[in-house]
Amino acid sequence: MPAPDTRPFGRLDGRRAFVSGGALRIGAAVTRSFADTSAHVVIGDLDLAQASDLAGQVGATAARLDVSDTGMVRAIVAQHGPFDIVVNNAGADQHAFFTDTTPGDWARLLAVNLVSAFACTHAALPAMQAAGFGRVINITSEAARLGSKGGAVYSAAKGGVIAFTKSIARENARFGITANSIAPGPIRTLMLEVAVAQGGEKILRAMIDATLLRRLGEPEEIAAAVLFLASDQAAYITGETIGVSGGMGLGG
């Protein structure tokens, strides 16, 4: 039986959390929600200036991190860990038909979206196993479940994240570690802004129309789901992919 839950609902008092890509938009919202519930947060981000600014605002720690560099990942986790919670949020997209992509594009997108989740989780898991507690939360995408016109490699990488999450859940339940993923739909992020800049308002309208709620989501709505999965109240949830996408997974 797990130890009795003594934390108020949604509190992370004293937990140590690592958020990759934690300086902007979804990552920043997750960082703020964790800090607001008294977790000790380490932000790993390629943009150290943005990460440091946010860290100063919320009382977190900033570390420059290239998530595609597995050696750097190991060094950051060794320096700032151990962690109770790991949020693999870093991501990158490319808006091009598959025939217009190159092996270099594939390698970059797989490194940022999939290999980074491998690396951060691999670095943090041993300490979680030793402690008998852990939360691994991976940010995937509804594109992983539905496909994405103009985003085949991104969709494939994020689909890999879902399968990886399930495998980590199976391997680590005996250690008291849960692993879950969150699949955002169209969220007001820099990645979405780039897509609209390239494809025009028609792209934005199509994204909105693909949801049942007919609107964009906000980063804070993703952060709320992450906070729940990180909390003690989600201790009986593992191996799941939760869509936070306005019903996009059901079809428009």
Describe the structure in your own words.
Helix 7 packs across helix 8 (201-209). The chain is globular. Strands 3-2-1-4-5-6-7 form a 7-stranded parallel sheet, with helices on both faces. The protein is built from 9 helices and 7 strands. With 252 residues, the chain is of the alpha/beta class.
Largest sheet: 7 strands, parallel
Low-confidence stretches: none
Class by helix and strand content?
alpha/beta
C-alpha-based Rg, rounded: 17 Å
Give the strand content: 5-15%
State mean pLDDT (0 to 100 scale). Answer: 92
Number of strands: 7
Helix content: 40-55%
Give the strand order of the largest sheet, numbering strands 1, 2, ... along the chain. Answer: 3-2-1-4-5-6-7
Report the end-to-end length measured between terminal Cα atoms: 42 Å
Shape: globular
Subunit arrangement of the protein: single chain
Number of helices: 9
H and E string: EHEHEHEHEHHEHHHE
Structure, briefly:
The chain has 252 residues and is an alpha/beta fold. The chain contains nine helices and seven strands.
